[in-house]
Amino acid sequence: MNDAYHITQDTLAITPAKQIDYTTRIIEKNQTLMTRQAPLAIIKTNCLTGAASYQGRRKAASHLVGYIHKVPLLIYERTNIYAFPTQSPTNYACSWLFAQHILKIVRHPDTNQSTITFHNGTTLNLEESTYQLRTQLNRTIQLHYAIKHHNSHPFETV
Known about the structure:
single chain; three-stranded antiparallel sheet
């Protein structure tokens, strides 16, 4: 996979691949893809495709929900695709999860890792704590409702 990856309704997660030949693993509903494109580069490219810069999306989200670190993002407004980083987006180990697909986040029974279960039954183990990941998911839900509320009252002054 050499072309820039286009995030779709099927994208569940974008994670570092930790392999020599590939930088990133992309988990979709029905397949897993590998690419040399870094996770943050994928997010930034897709923000631009969605008609806004990554920094613009971050700034807007931060303004709406008040968070300045690990800010969740609206990637595509028309299709309501939201993602959140599991760590600082500039950290190599940062994964991006797509909130609408997450069924549950639980502590892995054998390790301090967390297991994310997606609606289609796919599971993903990550190093981050269950508390951290649930907090990020809640922030993403807050962002969704802040945008939805703002868009339903477009002429309301702040």
